[in-house]
TrEMBL record:
Keywords: NADP, Oxidoreductase. Belongs to the short-chain dehydrogenases/reductases (SDR) family. InterPro entries: NAD(P)-bd_dom_sf, Sc_DH/Rdtase_CS, SDR_fam. Gene3D superfamilies: NAD(P)-binding Rossmann-like Domain. PANTHER family: BENZIL REDUCTASE, CHAIN DEHYDROGENASE_OXIDOREDUCTASE, PUTATIVE (AFU_ORTHOLOGUE AFUA_2G15740)-RELATED. Residues 50-80 are annotated as: Disordered. It comes from Exophiala sideris. This is NAD(P)-binding protein.
Length: 287
């Protein structure tokens, strides 16, 4: 019985040999690799881009190139490209407490973006740094930095000045309410007069500034933005920082921002006046 099996195996092997040889020939031949569709498209795109770049390099162009993000700002030579995503050209802003310190720093950023900024402060004259910023930025970036002697505790005068500014430009686009005072005193030593003085500026002054500007935004149909400068001390109590009244006033500003954002969500013909609170940490300044 073994011989028929052997013959069958030999005959099967002989019949399979041509097929095996054919497969070996096919697989042994090196076939050229075809690039994928994506690779072909990328190659065509690269070639067309290179060709266009060479053509453009031959032709002189009068357009200025946008600055690299690594360039240090501010750069007066690149003024047409400054704050492209944050363009405030011809827009009008009020900054209370803008005569020095944090208020002046925030006002400076608005001017750099092309805004017309009016700083209101109870100082008879702004700090020398104000005039330096005014001369350095105004002519170069298209914005303007102005100053008015205004005490935010005087609601009538505050309303009048803001109304005149809005009337001059027929618009009101934003407010940064940065006017505030600090008094590090233990709670047991705080007099009623000192409490009211701080609340008149830190809370009542912020409230009145926001209302005055919002009234002009509604009048001139401007979908504006209001930033109330609060503090991290309005959210936490720093150990050893004995300023309960200041902390309370800044906590009130945080809640004021929430309340006004809700109330003015559709104030300008169904469009919002945006209201936010900024809570910075400790900073070293004279304001």
């Amino acid at each position: 019985m073994s011989r028929p099996t052997t013959r069958l195996s030999l005959s099967l092997a002989k019949s399979c040999t041509p097929a095996v040889r054919s497969i070996c020939r096919t697989t042994s031949k090196a076939r050229p690799l075809r690039p994928t569709v994506a690779a072909q498209q990328y190659r065509l795109f690269s070639q067309s881009t290179l060709a266009s770049s060479k053509a453009s390099s031959k032709e002189p162009s009068n357009e200025k190139q946008a600055p690299s993000i690594k360039e240090k700002l501010p750069d007066p030579q690149q003024s047409p490209f400054r704050f492209r995503e944050f363009d405030l050209n011809e827009k009008v802003f009020i900054v209370t407490g803008g005569g020095r310190g944090l208020g002046l720093t925030l006002a400076e950023a608005l001017v750099e973006a092309g805004g017309k900024v009016y700083c209101l402060d109870r100082l008879p004259e702004p700090e020398p740094e104000f005039h330096e910023v005014q001369q350095r930025l105004g002519p170069k970036y298209g914005g303007a930095l102005n100053y008015d002697h205004v005490d935010v505790r005087e609601a009538g005068n505050l309303d009048r000045v803001i109304s005149e500014i809005a009337s001059k430009h027929s618009r009101m686009d934003g407010l940064i309410a940065a006017a505030a005072i600090q008094n590090v005193t233990p709670a047991l030593d705080f007099t009623p007069e000192k409490i009211m003085e701080m609340l008149d500026i830190n809370y009542k002054g912020v409230f009145r500034s926001a209302v005055s500007c919002a009234r002009q935004m509604i009048k001139y149909d401007c979908q504006g933005s209001i930033l109330l400068v609060a503090s991290m001390s309005g959210l936490i109590a720093n150990k050893g920082f004995t300023s309960a009244v200041y902390n309370s006033s800044k906590a009130a500003v945080c809640q004021l921002a929430r309340s006004l954002a809700m109330e003015w969500g559709k104030a300008v013909n169904g469009k919002p006046i945006r209201v936010n609170a900024l809570c910075p940490g400790r900073s070293q300044n004279d304001g």
